[in-house]
Amino acid sequence: MAIEIERRFLLLPMNVEEVLNEQDLLFKKIKIEQFYVSSSEDAVERYRHSGSRFVHTKKVGFGMMREEFESEVSEEVYLKQKEKNQNKNLIKKIRYLAHCEDNILEIDVFEGALKGLVILEVEFYSKDDSKKFTLPRFLRDFFVKEITLHREFTNGYLSKIMRIPSLSYDLKEATKKIDEAKDELYEYSRIKLPPYQSIGDSIKILSYMLAIVMEKRVFALLEEPKSNLNRIKQLKISIYKLFIYLDEFEITFKKGWRQKRLKALESLIDSFELRNKTNICLDKFYIFEELSDNKNLLKDIKDELISINNRSLREVLRVLRKKKVQKLLKHLKHVKSNKDEAKTPSVIFLNTLINNKISELLNIIHTIDDDIIDDEMVLYIRDKIKSLKFIFYDFANATPRVVNHDILDTLDNLERDFESVAEFSIQIQYLKFFRENLQDIDIKALDILISRVQEEKIEQKLIAITLLKALEETLQETQKRIP
Questions:
Q1: What are the tens digits of pLDDT across the range 12-57?
Q2: Can you list the positions of beta strands (E) in 156-231?
Q3: Are strands 43-50 and 53-60 parallel, antiparallel or unpaired?
Q4: Do both 351 and 334 map to the same domain?
Q5: Surface-to-core class of residue 364, CB atoms within 10 Å of its CB (0-12 exposed, 13-18 middle, 19+ buried)
Q6: What contacts 442, CB < 8 A, 6 or more positions away?
Q7: How do strand 91-100 and strand 27-39 relate by DSSP bridges?
Q8: Is 129 left (phi over 0), alpha (psi -120 to 50) or beta?
Q9: Is residue 183 part of a domain?
Q10: I need a surface site. Which of 11, 172, 356, 403 has the fewest CB within 10 A?
Q11: Are the CB atoms for 282 and 427 separated by under 8 Å?
């Protein structure tokens, strides 16, 4: 019998070999497979295959100090016990042993169902030594929490649930901060979503926050409809973000609840569509003025756009007054999650999601043809970029080793470029509509303007595609940072 004195630390997903090599630390790499024949709160019995060794271990106690009974067994005994256990709930991991200062670091990188989980274990000769230990500086950026006394992160418990546990955080405190915020957009930007908070709880906080923004913007618009431009823009962004999160984070929501809210948000987005298009044309009217010197034509176009814009605003306000909008906001404040899938730690869920979304964009880049990219593809690419950008911004704290300013700036610029191409398409649609429906308009001058806007669109599309292809290297570097 021996007394084991050990502290355990939860780390962010990481490329351990890369990190250790950066520190010039020598390390040993061991493949481990283990299973538990019994596991209770105060005692566990386990068999482990570690390198060339087969070991039977019993541990009694919980926390930093435990009694340990260990004996080597033959491969035959190990395999017999494994078969008796029906190969169930096998824990597989790679252990990295590295000398650092006066300690041996044991960094476990789990595989299979527990992929993404990284735990540091450090054993000590005495209790005093354990108290003196501080985490090496190079691991502090990866540190999440000490889990020596967290039963749910013990190997015995992990073998029972075979999924990575999340850490509990106070949701009431988070929603209280949102409710008390005076300048909500500034305050909300400071809300940090912890990496090991469950993805379900992270989505609940984001949904609550965005629903509050929507609620305040709707109220302000109905109170002062003339002071609306910025409020409508902020309202639209909140609606679109919620739509993206309900769409992209599908498995974290209850199916029926999600489908109803998606449909309601989609209907709300549609009600803004006409207003959005006329706003684009009015905001970018300087383009028409740069491409045409026919003042009568420009006046006719602007007058009609203002008229359509006013009608569309009245329609938006009519929709926002409906009781179903208030009902939607109430539901969005109280998200209904899938119990199991929503328990996944945010960082684990997001690493997979981000990797998939980057792969989608890279696939687009590899298959894109400058000559055949149409308006539908432009919108598709823009939406993919926007979706990835929103996830990066709102979950930056939950994926600290993946997201950086370079990728955010690049995505911002790309979104603007593809948005510009889409805006040119909208301008051309309106000009063609006016050509068919406005009486006494100068058709010849209008056709010249349409032709010039089309030329600008083609030039902008080529710029956007060139930048998209230049994004490939940045995306690949970002993907490499995903453990």
A1: 999 999 999 999 999 999 999 999 998 888 899 999 999 999 999 9
A2: none
A3: antiparallel
A4: no
A5: middle
A6: 294, 296, 297
A7: antiparallel
A8: alpha
A9: no
A10: 172
A11: no
